[in-house]
């Protein structure tokens, strides 16, 4: 088990954390703009609906491929032994082709009007998704080993969160301007270049502890992938974490996917650009809150903060319901901004605390089994996260399609707001029950 070095984060933490900016910039680029590129830009006889259908299927395939790849990459990374550690070879090796695949998504041969364009975009996105697993799972798995103490891990996670929010904010505010003035291909190239620049400093940051073969039992090297995945769920701490984290993300993903519909139906806003300033209240409060998270973790414990974050966000989602009733005095946009600002505090907690809890679970598993499987645990978490995203998207699309998401027919949005809240609160209660059992 790694030695606990107390509260001080390792030197070069920000060199390690800066990769989050590029990772989240490219993830947001594709999440928001890939379908519009192939649907809205299709002209000269090309069917926007056909293109959207094909690229949508390609994106779903890419998500499945990434979800399946996460634990596979984690398993292989855990068994890798090099002079620069178990993780850096994958991060550095995947970075350039990952950024290139991102650019290829917006550069189909013959232009977006070509009949093969959506197939090209789908193939490029699937490649990007698999390369994301190769890069991101080992990157995240470095954190438990480079920061050996609980509060030190929170501080490293805060640094990551600062760059993570910077990536999301840059995508929300910068990408629309780049597309408007330079076009999609140039915007994608710019984002890919920024992503590479943000990842490059990792070579100057702290490295994971090189593990020598003699440090681990021989059985650890013979263990198969699926046995390893099954054994992660034998950890009661990981089961509680995974179930609560997965439930919370189902709720959050459901709410996020509904925001554009809510903005049009309840607030009268058209387009992503009009929503971004309103969401800025949440981002601003989260950034202000980040420096206080380590002190809160020290005072009340990371487990309680984790529970607070999930429960508080869950209770916030149903507050969206009155926005569509017309019963609130004043401008509904101001009420929405107020809700977003209130969400900022638990959001700051959930940007930082969960990975540190998972790191503790990994330490306990390593002490029990005599081998560290950091990347496998992060890979299985990635699989659960992608499944949660899929369930959240399914709930949103079914509610919107069958129950309505307009000012005249808002039932679907009411159901989404309430369902998102239930998932978040149940996630918090699940982890609270686990903590009570551990204390008994």
Give a description of the structure.
The chain has helices at 13-17, 19-40, 48-79, 88-104, 117-141, 143-146, 150-182, 184-199, 218-222, 225-232, 236-267, 272-289, 293-300, 302-316, 332-369, 374-403, 411-439. With 440 residues, the protein is mostly helical. The longest helix has 38 residues, at 332-369. It is built from 17 helices and no strands. The protein has 2 domains: 9-200, Growth Hormone, Chain: A; 225-440, Growth Hormone, Chain: A. The radius of gyration is 22 Å and the shape is globular.
| Strands, count | 0
Q: What is the CATH superfamily of the largest domain?
A: MFS general substrate transporter like domains
Q: What is the overall number of helices?
A: 17
Give the total of domains: 2
CATH architecture of the largest domain: Up-down Bundle
Q: What is the typical, i.e. mean, pLDDT?
A: 84
> Which overall shape is indicated by the principal axes computed on the Cα atoms?
globular
Q: Give the class from helix and strand content and strand pairing.
A: mainly alpha
- Approximately how much helix is present in the residues? over 70%
Cα end-to-end separation: 25 Å
Biggest sheet character = none
| H and E string | HHHHHHHHHHHHHHHHH
Report the radius of gyration as a whole number of Å.
22 Å
Poorly predicted segments: 1-5, 42-46
**Text of the CATH class of the largest domain:** Mainly Alpha
CATH topology of the largest domain: Growth Hormone, Chain: A
| Proportion of beta-strand residues | under 5%
Provide key terms for this protein:
77% helix, 440 residues, Growth Hormone, Chain: A, globular, mainly alpha, single chain
